[in-house]
């Protein structure tokens, strides 16, 4: 059994919720899992407890609230009462309190004027902050797929989260990268409080990976490192995050991701890549 490394979080968005990946994760030193109230058709927490209720005390568990079932679909809401109920339900279904509860994609319900959006976000943050203060979860955060509307809403009046999770990696896009960094700066978060997610954009077999060799962003020597591993390792720098939630049902794949942590990113080449992304954006017609 390897020593625990907090840099990898096993993300369960696409998971089959099998016991095998949970035991393998612990063997590989991955002792954090990220799930959500709405994953697995709103049954992720019970599926997790069914797969390994005896294993759950050994994991740090983060989950998310913000999507709710309605007429066979999912609707988004930042209603403080619904968020609170979802946290309470999560504890019942998991059989324990989660270590962290993220507000899930709050941008989905932040339409309208800035003042109204800020008010709605502030009340939602206060609801999960209160849940944490009352011991319903260890801490709280924000997980945002598209953080671009968020930085301008954050001022001294909003509660400060314990963690923020954003898209990370070569596919995140320069506007998302910059918004994520701006959001982290607004809340003065250190890299360990900024989490990355979805380093492969949901699939490690996208055609792009056949055209771009991400090993160019890894310091030499990198013999034996695969393109998939390099893609994962580089994601810790786009933006600078302390841990990444990555999905896999395969113990072999998870082992490859753990091994990739031994390599270091080539920051000069990454900075050139970022400059090219900015130049490309600036050339786009308004
Ligand atoms: N808005 C949000 O809050 C939000 C949105 C999306 C994601 N997330 C978080 O990010 C986590 C990960 O997202 P994701 O699953 O959508 O995307 P991802 O981690 O970018 O991609 C997962 C895919 O990568 C493959 N993979 C992983 N390691 C591999 C390896 N070594 N070799 C080959 N293939 C590999 C997996 O296939 P195999 O199973 O075959 O290994 C899986 O299909 C989620 O579980 C969640 O925690 C949050």
Q: What would your notes on this structure say?
A:
- The chain has 286 residues and is of the alpha/beta class.
- It has one domain: NADP-dependent oxidoreductase domain (TIM Barrel, Alpha-Beta Barrel), CATH 3.20.20.100.
- The chain has helices at 19-27, 39-42, 44-52, 80-94, 114-133, 174-186, 208-211, 227-234, 251-260, 267-283, and strands at 8-11, 32-34, 60-65, 67-70, 73-76, 100-104, 140-144, 163-167, 194-197, 243-247.
- Strand 1, helix 1 (19-27) and strand 2 form a beta-alpha-beta unit.
- The model has no long low-confidence stretch (mean pLDDT 95).
- The structure holds NADP nicotinamide-adenine-dinucleotide phosphate.
Architecture blueprint of SSEs:
Blueprint: E1 8-11, H1 19-27, E2 32-34, H2 39-42, H3 44-52, E3 60-65, E4 67-70, E5 73-76, H4 80-94, E6 100-104, H5 114-133, E7 140-144, E8 163-167, H6 174-186, E9 194-197, H7 208-211, H8 227-234, E10 243-247, H9 251-260, H10 267-283
Parallel strand pairs: 1-2, 1-10, 2-3, 3-6, 6-7, 7-8, 8-9, 9-10
Antiparallel strand pairs: 4-5
Helix pairs in contact: 4-5, 8-9
The site of NADP nicotinamide-adenine-dinucleotide phosphate has 28 residues, from strand 10 and helix 9.
What's the number of domains?
1
Shape: globular
Taking all Cα atoms into account, the compactness measure Rg is: 19 Å
Number of strands: 10
List SSEs in N-to-C order.
EHEHHEEEHEHEEHEHHEHH
Strand content: 15-25%
Order of strands, widest sheet:
1-2-3-6-7-8-9-10
Bound molecules: NADP nicotinamide-adenine-dinucleotide phosphate
- Mean of residue pLDDT values: 95
Q: Give the distance, in angstroms, between the N- and C-terminal Cα atoms.
A: 54 Å
CATH superfamily: NADP-dependent oxidoreductase domain
Structural class: alpha/beta
CATH class: Alpha Beta
What helical percentage do the residues reach?
A: 25-40%
CATH fold node name: TIM Barrel
CATH architecture: Alpha-Beta Barrel
Biggest β-sheet, characterized?
8 strands, parallel, barrel
Outline the low-pLDDT stretches.
none
How many helices in DSSP terms? Answer: 10
Domain NADP-dependent oxidoreductase: 18-167
Organism: Streptomyces yunnanensis
Protein name: Aldo/keto reductase
InterPro entries: AKR2_Oxidoreductase, NAD(P)_OxRdtase_dom_sf, NADP_OxRdtase_dom
């Amino acid at each position: 059994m390897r020593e625990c490394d907090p840099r990898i979080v096993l993300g369960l968005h696409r998971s089959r919720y099998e016991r095998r990946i949970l035991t393998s994760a612990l063997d590989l030193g991955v002792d954090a899992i990220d799930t959500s109230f709405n994953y697995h058709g709103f049954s992720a927490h019970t599926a997790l407890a069914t797969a390994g209720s005896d294993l759950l005390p050994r994991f740090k568990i983060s989950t998310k609230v913000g999507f709710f079932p309605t007429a066979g679909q999912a609707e988004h809401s930042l209603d403080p009462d619904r968020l609170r109920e979802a946290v309470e339900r999560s504890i019942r279904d998991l059989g324990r309190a989660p270590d962290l509860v993220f507000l899930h994609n709050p941008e989905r319900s932040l339409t309208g004027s800035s003042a109204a959006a800020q008010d709605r976000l502030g009340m939602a943050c206060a609801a999960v902050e209160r849940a944490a203060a009352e011991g319903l979860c260890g801490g709280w955060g924000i997980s945002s797929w598209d953080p671009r509307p968020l930085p301008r809403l954050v001022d001294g009046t909003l509660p400060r989260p314990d963690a923020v999770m954003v898209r990370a990696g070569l596919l995140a896009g320069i506007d998302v990268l910059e918004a994520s960094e701006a959001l982290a700066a607004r809340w003065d978060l250190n890299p360990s409080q900024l989490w990355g997610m979805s380093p492969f954009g949901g699939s490690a077999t996208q055609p792009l990976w056949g055209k771009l060799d991400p090993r160019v962003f890894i310091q030499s020597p990198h013999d034996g490192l695969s393109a998939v591993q390099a893609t994962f390792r580089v994601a810790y720098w786009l933006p600078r995050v302390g841990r990444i939630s990555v999905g896999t049902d395969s113990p072999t794949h998870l082992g490859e991701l753990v091994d990739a942590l031994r390599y270091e990113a080539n920051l000069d080449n990454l900075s050139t890549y970022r400059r090219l992304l900015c130049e490309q954006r600036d050339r786009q017609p308004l």
